[in-house]
Known about the structure:
This protein has 108 residues and is α+β, with helices and mostly antiparallel strands. It has a domain at 19-93. 44% of the residues lie in helices and 11% in strands. The chain has helices at residues 19-39, 65-91, and strands at residues 46-51, 57-62. Strands 1-2 form a two-stranded antiparallel ribbon. Helix 1 packs antiparallel against helix 2. It starts with 18 loop residues before the first helix and ends in a 17-residue tail after the last helix.
Amino acid sequence: xxxxVSSKPDRTPLPQSSPWLRWLPFLVLLLAAVLVLxxxxxxxxxxxxxxGLHGQPDRWxxxxxxxxxxxxxFGVFMCGIIEGIATLLLAYPRAGKIxxxxxxxxxx
Length: 108
């Protein structure tokens, strides 16, 4: 075997992320929620959330708590999903890898 080829599997170190960097999206969403709470009284009673093909609003939202905070809550949910996937991949690094030797050839 040539000296440049190794029979050992590739042992690359796992990337480590800063806890601040991982919590940054949640902090931004928390800041957005606080800002919405502070200026919520200045929101109009209704505002457009979707425009049709000709540029006219065809869907409106109202100043209810669910309508105001839904985008922030959805952002927290999505960041939680991504954080959960990242945590699982860092905890079980081989879970995402497929061994080529175990794959069966496709029958045509």
